[in-house]
Structure formats: structure tokens, C-alpha cells
Amino acid sequence: ATTTTIDEEREREREGGVERRESARIEPWGKQNTMSSLPSLPSTAPVSLATSMDGHCVPGLIEGQEFESVQRSGLFGKLLSVDRESVTSMARSMRSNATYRSAGYSISASSYKDGSGKDRDVGVAPPQQASWVAIAFIMISEVVGAGVLTLSQKYAELGWIIPSIAIIAIFFLVVYTSSMMVEVRKVFPGIVCLSDGADYTYGKWARIAVQTFVILYLVCTLGDYLLLVGKSLGSTAYNVHLCYPIWSLIGAAVLVPIVQLRYLNATTFLCAMNMVSIIVVIALVIAGLATKGRAADVETPLIAEGLDFMQFMQSLSAIFFTFGGQFMFYELMSEMKDFTEFTKTFRIAGPFQVSIYLLVGCVGYYYKGTEASGYFLDNLGFGPAYRVASALLCFHIIVGFVIVGNVLCRILHIQFSPFRANDLSWRGRLEWAAVGFGVTATSFVIANAIPFFDLLTGLIGGLLLPPLCLLAPVVLYIKTRHMVERPLAIWEWVINLSLVAFGVMLMVISTMENVRELISNWSTFGAPFSCHCQGMWDTCECSKARLEYSGGFNCSSIAQ
């Protein structure tokens, strides 16, 4: 057993730069529930207490207990050093004692090394300092973003009732799964990211699977962001008739040097500016709609006519995308003084998030009805308001790209070169530059392969988010309950298995429908890397509806 453990830990060293150390020999801890006579932990791993599912709150070490030092990408891509009980040691000790007691762990911001090997202070804030109120505002700025721009179209596809209920129901589903994630981290306090949770509960292959889904989600989200950067640049200069691939290439060229930033210091300011920019964009579109008024022939049925199950699931995937934040909740918990208060963040984030989503969806649907666009800014005509809104949206998306890109680059850099993740020498900088360029180039390919914002958003929300935001929290919680010998009640099994079935169904059906519509759009609007000037150029060929909506244009008479 000892040989197997050493081999497993050595394999972890090769995969993620893990340092392993074994604690001094002490007497077995046993099944006691006492906090007296606690053995001392290594100085790098201060005691952290949390109440587990079965009420135990007792730290301690057992004979042969091993600690590991790992690097993780934290909030905003912050490089973290985590000292914790190793995954194999935790599993072995839980089996031997048939109960749980909190292990020691510590999380700190990694120091950066310059070319001479000396530490350099880069001004990164230490983790485990934030209150739940601060985390709530970070959550708002991170989650409320590009996805909200599709909601008026979802109302057009579903009607008044279904999307309104879905927005509220998905919010409470997020709260429920988040409480599960908190309970899992109480048992395994060394969890810093979702893949850590999979590692502690199911093992190496589960960790790899979850990490793969996280990387795919981040890559596709960056493609979605770059799509919007190109589209918003072209919309800001709508009288400059460059094809969409050129605008997205210009956007990528702007982003490449920005993603070379290896650490983000002014994150509070960035989040605030990001939040303000998207709110102003939404306000400008709503003001434009209100100024134009509601046409007499606008139709807004309570439930869309001819709605079928496939269309329902496809629309639901886009709504699900707007709540897609659970994959980063463990990173948020790692920033908190007391992560057990994490669910309190929804007292602030929830009302704001749900209100914004309902406002955008309902206002767009009220004024445009079944013709509401899948890109909220398409509800504006050409003019100064459209230019300003497009420019602000471009800024918002660039900031979002930098933040998400930093997270993805950090994950990839740790994965491929863990011992240079904090190296500021020429080689470390060159590796980071290569990762950043590769991420941006991949995003450019995705943005041009699927140049339809609403479809790419729905594809991400249906294919990649259910495994991360629904299936993973549920199955990790179920396994953790089994590991601490607290079996689920029958009603809990019913609820959780229903959620798993719903998640799988959402993945399969919505992806099928999104792919079908994507193929149809390629035939109608052009293949990948075609011009795709729709909605950008102020010409009748590309933007007939917007020109006529702007007033003073009659494309039909011009054609005659």
C-alpha cells in the first residue's frame, strides 16, 4: 500500500508540480470526536476548521499522513499555492477511521521569481480575506455578462410565461447546487477548484474529465467573447464596410498583447467598470426601444404558438448559459474568510441577477414581440446610441476576455509547465506568451467557425455547462455523503437523480437542436469565415430591418 501511494504521488508530481511530504509518526486518531490534544500540523499548513456533514469538527493527523503542495489557478487567474492533505492520504485515512475529521490546509498567493531567482512582490491580494458581501459583488460582475443579450429572443421563442419561470427556477437550482458544493468542501477543505472535488471523491480520471470540460468551456466562452468583440467593433464603425472575419482579426490583434498580463491587480476596479458598462448598454437599448415605442402589429403570446420540445430545450440552454458560474464557485470560496457563508452571497447577487434578466427579456419582448433579436443591440437602429452602446459592449467584452483568458492561461501553464508558472524570467515569459497567443488564436477560430452569437451561446449553455454546473455538484455531493457514511434519504435520491436526468437530457437535446440550426444558418448566411455583414453594415443587403427601423430608409423602394 505504501509503494502504491508513493507511485501515485510521484505521478501527481509529474502532472502538476506536486511536492509530497509525510508527517511525523503519531498515534492513530480513531473515531473520537474531540478537539483536545491535537497533534501539530506542519507550519505551512495551519489548522482550518469546518463542520462536516455528520457534525464532526475535529482536525488531526494519522500515522503516515501525507501533505502535498500544489499550484492552482484561483479567482481572476491568481496563482495560488495550496498546502493540504494529499488526495490518496485523505482517502486512506477516511477508510481507516470510517468518519471524517478536518485536515489542515493553507492557501496563499504564490510568490513570483525574477530572472535571478529572487522573489518579486507583484501586489496580488492574499486569498481567504474576502467577506461574503465582497464575493457577492464579484459574482455579479462575473456572471452578468454577454449571455443576458440573448434573453429577449428566448422570450420571443417561448412566450411570457416559460422563460420567466425558467429564470427564477434556474436561480434556485444554482443556490441548491451551491449549497452542495459548500458541504463537499467542508469534508475536503483543500478543494480550490471543481476538478479538485472530482479528485477527492472519484479519483484521477474524474479530475481529468472535469478539468477537460472546464478548459473546453473557457475556450468556447472566449470564442463567444471574441465573436462579440468583432461584432461590436464592426457595429461601432458601421459605415466602415469590413467583413466580420477582418473585424474579429482586429479584435484578436488588440487582445494578444493584453492577455500577456500575468497577474491582474486592479480587479475590483475592473469588475466595477465591467458592471457599469453592461448596465449602460442595457439602459441605452431599453431607452431606444421606449423612444421608438411599440408597433401596433407586435405579437406577444403568453406561450409561443407551435412551440415543441426541441425548441424549448434549445432556448433553455441559452437561459442556462446566463447562470453558468458554478464551475468557479470553489475559486470564490477560496477567497473567503469563511467559505461556509458562501450561500449568503445570493442574498445580494440573486435579486440583482434575476431582476436584470427579467428586465432585459421582458422589455425586449414587449417592444419587439416574436421578432425580438438574439443579440439585444440589434433592437437599436443605426445612430449615435447604437455606436455608443456597441463601443461600451466592446469594452465590457474585452475586460471579460482578459479575466477569463487569464484564468485559462494560468490553468494551461500550470498543466504544461508547473515549475515555471511563477517564473518571470525570459523563459517563463516566453511560455506565457505562447499560451496567450494560442488561446487567442483558438478563440478566433471558434468565433469564425460559429459566427452566430445566439447559437454559440446556446451551444455552450447546452453542451458544456450542464456537466459543470449541474451534474458535477450533484454527483460529487452524492459520493461525499457515501464517503462520510451519511446515505441519502429516498426523497434526496429522487431530487438528485431527477436533476442528473434533466442535465443529461438538456445536454443531448439542446445540442442536437443547436447543431441543426447552426447547419441551417451556414446555408443561409454563409459558411465559416464568410463575410457575415448581417447587422453591421448600413446597407440594405446586410441590415435591411435595422435601416428601416432607423427611419428614413426604404430598402424595398431602392431595390425597385
From TrEMBL:
Presence of keyword Lipid biosynthesis: no
Biased composition (Basic and acidic residues): 7-25
One Pfam family from the record: Aa_trans
Subcellular location field: Membrane
Membrane topology, from the record: Multi-pass membrane protein
Annotated protein name in UniProt: Amino acid transporter transmembrane domain-containing protein
Organism: Chloropicon roscoffensis
Keyword match Transmembrane: yes
Transmembrane segments: 130-152, 158-176, 208-227, 239-259, 271-291, 311-333, 345-367, 387-409, 430-453, 459-478, 490-512
InterPro entries for the chain: AA_transpt_TM (IPR013057)
